């Protein structure tokens, strides 16, 4: 791969990463809206939504981590690309402007943030179910 192809691949992985986060936020909003607008308490539905959301969150986090690792590998290849040869001046000029704007992605921070949001979303589902049951004078058993 040449330098411009590496840069293009880096930004394609960045866009993919952003889309995984966008889908994640949309699903959290959908799960929250579904929980808010439900009228009747239904333990089975809450359990099913919890399991489905947990499965989605697990796969989404895996996709985010894999994409971040790909992006990091491409970033490393960009940083190590030799600035010699026929296009050395172009690579040097682009490197001076571009590479300082390419930060490392904090995979551990993203993972912890994802986990906290997952736990808060699941807690929200169950608190809403508890409130519906309380309003209907039912118990969780």
User: Quick one: how many beta strands?
Assistant: 0
Amino- and carboxy-terminal Cα gap: 60 Å
- Kindly report the average pLDDT value: 92
Number of helices: 4
Shape: rod-shaped
Low-confidence parts lasting 5 or more residues at pLDDT below 50? none
Q: Helix proportion of residues, in percent?
A: over 70%
What class would the helix/strand composition place it in? Answer: mainly alpha
- Helix and strand pattern: HHHH
Radius of gyration: 22 Å
Domain module count: 1
Largest sheet: none
Fraction of residues in β-strands = under 5%
Folded structure, characterized:
The chain is built from four helices and no strands. The chain is mainly α. It has one domain.
Characteristics:
141 residues; mainly alpha
Q: Which SSEs are present, and which pair or pack?
A:
Layout: H1 3-37, H2 43-80, H3 88-98, H4 107-135
Give a short overview.
This protein is mainly α.
């Amino acid at each position: 791969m040449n330098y411009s192809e590496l840069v293009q691949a880096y930004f394609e992985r960045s866009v993919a990463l952003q889309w995984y986060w966008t889908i994640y936020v949309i699903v959290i909003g959908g799960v929250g809206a579904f929980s808010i607008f439900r009228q009747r308490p239904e333990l089975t539905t809450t359990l099913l939504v919890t399991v489905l959301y947990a499965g989605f969150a697990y796969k989404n986090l895996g996709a985010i981590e894999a994409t971040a690792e790909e992006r990091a590998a491409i970033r490393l290849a960009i940083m190590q690309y030799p600035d010699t040869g026929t296009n050395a001046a172009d690579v040097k000029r682009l490197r001076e402007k571009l590479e300082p704007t390419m930060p490392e992605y904090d995979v551990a921070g993203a993972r912890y943030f994802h986990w906290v949001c997952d736990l808060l979303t699941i807690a929200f589902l169950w608190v809403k179910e508890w409130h519906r049951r309380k309003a209907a004078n039912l118990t969780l058993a």
